[in-house]
Amino acid sequence: MPRINAKEFLEELAFCLKAEDIVKAKALLQFASDSNIDVEVQKQALLAIGNAREAIAFPLLEHLTRVEIASPEMQDALYELILDKAYGNTDLVIRYITGEDHKSSRLIYLKAAGDLALTETAGPIASIISTSRDSEILAQAVKSLGALRLEEHLPLLATLAKDQKTDGKIRHEAIFAMAEHAGRPAVDHLYQCISGTSDADLLAIEAMAEIQDQYALETLSLLMDSSHTHIRDAAIDQFLKIGKKAVPILTKAAFNAQSDYLVHLLTTLGYIGDQAALPGILDIVNVNPKDPNIRQAAYEALERLPSTKSAITLAGGLQDPVEAVRMSAARAVDKNLSKVLVAGLKNIVRQENKDAENTVAALIDSESDMVFNFLLQEESFDRLASAHVASKASPDTRNHFLALLKAKGHQELAGRISQATANRDSDIPENRDDIYAVDDSRMMLKLYQNKLGKAGYRTTPFQFPEEVMAAVSVSKPALVITDLNMPRMNGLQLTREIRRKYTRQELPILMITTQSDFVQAEDGNGTAAFDEAAMKKNGISRILHKPFTDEALYASVAELLSHQGEK
Question: Looking at the whole model, is its pTM more than 0.90?
Fold first, then answer.
């Protein structure tokens, strides 16, 4: 179609506006599309319409919403003019949003009703939500109703959000429309939308996190105690995004939290890394919780919160009865070194008793290299370190420590240890199986390497599940060991991704967890009976509950590898 004469177009439009001839003006505006008129001419036409009386401008603007205008600049200019004219003309807005004659016009005026917070439009918009079957109209109506922030309409939005038959986009809009309201009622409705089985769970958690008032954050913290992995992990991820603002809420929640919940709270506080959390974490450690998983989580959090205030507490952790806890305390020691802490370590080592042996073993096995700058001058440390590396450390740990000694000029000590271990490697079974281990805890990865290395397995550590997926796509290991609770991608999500490529028979997965997921019964010794149906459904081959013994780890690995490939 040939482009029309701009001067004639504008003159004709001016005549129609002056004569208030809406019919002829609408007919003329049919030619206002990008294909017929330049953007500058369109701008002049909008300016002319904007200067007209509302009774003339309003129907013409509504008519322009039906004209094909592709330019984003002109679309924005048209919408701004609609907003300007719509303010104070609620009756006309209602007329256009309830009209059935043109969809594009209804969408624009529905959006304007929300952007201008025209509360008088709430009733008609709610009626549209209850009766319309058009997904685009419904989505915009829901979004606009949320922008009006009228509490009496929360139940309508909640009904849409909870109904799994509702279109996904509309459920999304309904959830975030509730978040627009903020306040306790909105948070309560969002909380009720989280069922553990709905696709909308994660959206409701994200929406709740956006509110960020105290009640919303307190409610969000409760979700970290959920029995559903995806819910508590989503809550943790949101708190990590919120950051320091969340610390008072999480610290307060930790006062009366039970085991699983407290582990998640401590882990999250550690990842946030705010010193304000330090007193609360130290208080938890100082009461010496019975559950070793809590103690371990606390020391891992302290590793991420360097402070001289934690010196005495960390030294005590090196004498914990559980090896994994001692190693976590050792990692924290390495990040929190102070004169007081070094003096305490020297006193412990000089005793050369069982506590001293455990302390030295934890420092070496966790590769807490910084502390060795202060301990290598101690004869008692040299004796204890030599004994541990020569008789108990894994080959990788031994090689790391020997390299460290040589780098620091302790050639003689390195030579003695090498000589003492000359024949030891021949006693280690030569298992050729490659094992991938994934855990967000560097200490746990080191523990797996140490334990499995002593049994002759080649173990590759991964701190991020995404890295495992990339590795598995290139080369299939004999076994994957994964933690359950990890940020961003948890063990269940990782398992589902692996199962897209390999079956349970082709690649066994050993799930390690502190959580009571899949547990049917547990005895006083930490031995649990797991729900086999749930494990099979999630693609898990076997579950090992923390804290586990060396014997339990070796037995689980050996059994899974022996059955690999069986149908």
Answer: no
